[in-house]
Amino acid sequence: MKKILDWNKYAEAARRVVAEGCVLVENKDNVLPLKKGTKVAVFGRIQHNYYKSGTGSGGMVNVSDIYGITDGLKNSARVKVDEELENVYLEWEKENPFEVGIGWGQEPWCQKEMPVSKELASDCASRDDAAVIIIGRTAGEDKDNLETEGSWYLTATEKEMIKNVSEAFEKTCIVFNTGNIVDMNFVKEFNVKSVLYAWQGGMVGGLGVSDILTGIESPSGKLTDTIACSIKDYPSSANFGSLKDNVYAEDIYVGYRYFESAAKDKVLYPFGFGLSYTDFEINAGDFEFDNSGNLPRVKFDVKVKNTGKVSGKEVVQIYVKQPQGKLGKPALVLADFKKTSLLKKGKTAKLNFEFDISRIRSFDDTGVTGNIDSFVCEEGTYEIFAGNSVRNISKIGEFTLDELIVIEKVSDALKPVVSFDRMKAVLDKNTNTISFENEKVDAAAPYQNRHRNENLSELDNFTERTDLDQDVLSVIKTLSDEELSCIVRGEGMGSPKVTAGTAAAFGGVSKSMNDKGIPCCCCTDGPSGIRMDSGAQAFSLPNGTCQACTFNPELVKDLYEFTGWEMVYNKIDILLGPGINLRRHPLNGRNFEYFSEDPYVTGVFATANILGLHSAGVTGSLKHFCCNNQEAGRWVSNSVVSARALREIYLPGFEMAVKNGADVIMTSYGSVNSMWTSGNYDLVTMILRKDWGFTGIVMTDWWAMTNDEGKEPVRFNIAQNVRAQNDLYMVVPDAAENSHNDNTLTALSAGELTRAELLRSAYNTVLFLKKSHAQARLENRDIEVIIKNRKKTAMDGATDKIEYFETYDGLSIPLDHVDTSRGKSYSFGIVTKDKHFYRIELVGKTGNNDLAQVNVSVSYNGVNVAVLCWNGTHGAYEAKGLTMDRPLSRNTVLNLYFAQSGLTLKEFKITKVKDNE
Question: Is 701 a catalytic residue?
């Protein structure tokens, strides 16, 4: 069977997501859209250095092209870009090149900006009709944003540029190419008329942004975060960034749940806000409260009319005001949303809504309602509102519950083991206003081991159970203890057993298991596209922020179906994404991967990602389970969080996706309530599997630490992972060798781990593999994907067959056959079983020009580690290299990228410098 993947349609789907994800927050005097024929001056060095994504594993996608915003404007043929100004920037950039940083997480949050004088701005204004200022920011894995200029705040140079350009031009629009919101006080300071959040749109991002700027599309994106007056206004600011105990004292009052309750005056741009080029009228239709089923439900419709002058789409958001009851509630909670189709001026759409009260449930973690560890809806009146932001809503109906209703009783799991104070909402009935008081959260006694021991008997006679897949049971019955210890280890990074340069292989990673019909499965980083450190190129996707701001999950689902088939083409089974942690605080470096401050929005878009991938028979790994809400100290920080906040805020996104078919989960690095998540029995078994019914696989994050209850965390504590039913430790260099001497077999021998627990994880893994493309590949029956309309590049074929070379104390690899023409690339693999420090060198020669600068970029497992430069060598071979600051990985993929022609290579040399002490 063959499947055609049309690259043009893929790009068009991404372009639509970018356009619908752009959020217009200011547009005084109708600065936008730029009318046809407008002469536009583009300011800001990011016009030539578009951020396609944030940094770290979520952004390391090799691409053939990146279309920036200026590219999009030029390609639109609707406006005329000032090329004289563009050339000024190009000349300046020669002396001020883009700083990529060397090594992991070293790219700066922003780039040096070209100063724009009043004279330059005025000169451009004399010949141009409008100005677009592009400002960029990045952050990512291991690199939170900071409350400093160049990160959260604008720099002095950026402010001067905005001031001078805004004064010179009657029409100025500022476009933010960022993964995250930034401080917005400059709007009032400089009387800025138009601001567009364009986010990070992947490799075709600039095309989608141009569609908005030029009016091809009317903006329809909405903020999935609240933009406050000050970073200190966010209630989590007091604890964000702690490297030890990060206390979630704000509890359930995250984002608009806090601001709309008691701090409305602290908001600049509310949750759900976003302007359009047209106007809409939203009116209530029929409303019905149905109390005849298992749970009461509401049914209603909302009519949306385009009353403006151009076509557009509108998002209708449904909020519920709940009775405060005994628990205390936010002023409003988002219960649903829908986006219209494209409405022409004067046209009306009717949107139908229906949901039961489980959508607006609250969690009682203290027993104050008489229903501890239960989701409830308390008695009282519930008011339903509809509108296009949390601030622009009208009441459309209400219903009353005469008594409390228990929605669901769940396990007594994952409660804090230290006491702390949290915020609780209190209603003043005289003024009908909400304020907050402190409520003490009591510490629970240690419970993880107790819960595990209470449930161990469920594994009695595990392989004889009739309710399990009999074919899978027949396979795992044949596994030896050694094979069982092997199957719980993932192998990577860059395992030669799967697609070159990917994150991990797992499953049938040994010959004996392969011979028993267990395939070797491949997973690699997302969520912004497929990361292959071999240098192979892939499609770079719009970031999570952009996706969620579309408020159009169907559009995102369609995009991820294309990604799914691209994965099949590359023989990749799991994309390590989406990232679905809550955006608890604006400075979180990985906010670009995540969707929202709201759990419902997060769950909807997590589901869209997964269902899109499932359409191609592949899947994604929901991450990071759970509370990975900052990058600082993510290995060691302990999130101290109430069961209520977990159940209402930080877990529902995962729960929704799981109940809609998600089948892979990745745990986070850190600790939640004093138990590291990779070995957290309450999280992985009690909540995920028992409460939610999850039947898929769970994996650790790469090289995660795990602790036994009450003890400090260590790496390679795989026994505790398996006890918790975390099926796969990611990763080790060679799964069959047990090269890190983990404790799986020793714990089994000592009786600290049961064979049934190992069989259970093996069952989870083999059952997953049975339905995968990996199984089809092993049996030579997989679908062949053919890509059409993809631009041919110098990289094509360069990494299809990576050759691996094994080294012990040193190695020389002939490279005289390598094509070093400009733009070409060459990749190869190094396999080493030792942990020595090495010096790597390239030996090459150039011609007679002493001023020549022939550069080769060297990447190590996808991370740029050096740029080697040859001047004129007059035909003599010279060695250029570097001494590595760490031992080589077991499997290392090195990629050489040739920025200029003129180099003749002779060999690659690797020499041991010293033993690893």
Answer: yes
